[in-house]
Amino acid sequence: MSSGAGEALAALAAEVHACRRCPRLVEWREGVAADPPRRHRGEEYWAKPLDGFGDPRARVAVVGLAPAANGANRTGRMFTGDRSGEWLYAALHRAGFANRAESERRGDGLRLRGAYVTAVVRCAPPANKPTPAERDACLPYLERELELLDRCRVLVALGAFAWDGILRAARALGVEVPRPRPRFGHGAEVELGGWQLIGCFHPSQQNTFTGKLTVPMIDAVFSRAAELAR
What we know:
The chain is an alpha/beta fold. It has helices at residues 3-17, 23-34, 72-75, 83-94, 132-148, 160-172, 205-208, 215-229; strands at residues 53-54, 60-64, 115-119, 154-158, 189-192, 195-200.
């Protein structure tokens, strides 16, 4: 990808960071930062919307739901600072997409090769549940990222919310979504314009602690993504 596209992603990131479209989300993300749990007292929170993170030349884009209140909202990087992120970046490392398995915060030296991590909603929502209006206000950011990631061939949806968001973003970009509307499932695959969409259970503690998502399961998804991206 040209340096111009990388610069466009950086410009989009700056626009995302300044966004205050959703008053409920602004109040929540800033309120959490002002009164964090004891384990994070004294830490400086990012407390702004999150841009995507990764390689502008990515052939695989990973899409989640939204930043976690004391995870990415604290560290300033998607899927960083919580157990979900530990699972995701370890899996990306094992699949050869990351230079290391640990993601601590912005500027920690982590680099992605051939992959880009983003989300449908850019602010931490109360109870991890954005409203439909908040989702719709944020979707144009995902649409623009997908346009700029012009080498991307594979989209990995972490959970049903991300799956739905990707389908909505694709439709907004003029991509014909198959009918009947594809249903989310772990390992589900759908051709979506020039992309292959793959479903993966979200690496939330609810899924990883119960065994709904295991290491072999998430590794199989990223192994398949790497295969399709070649």
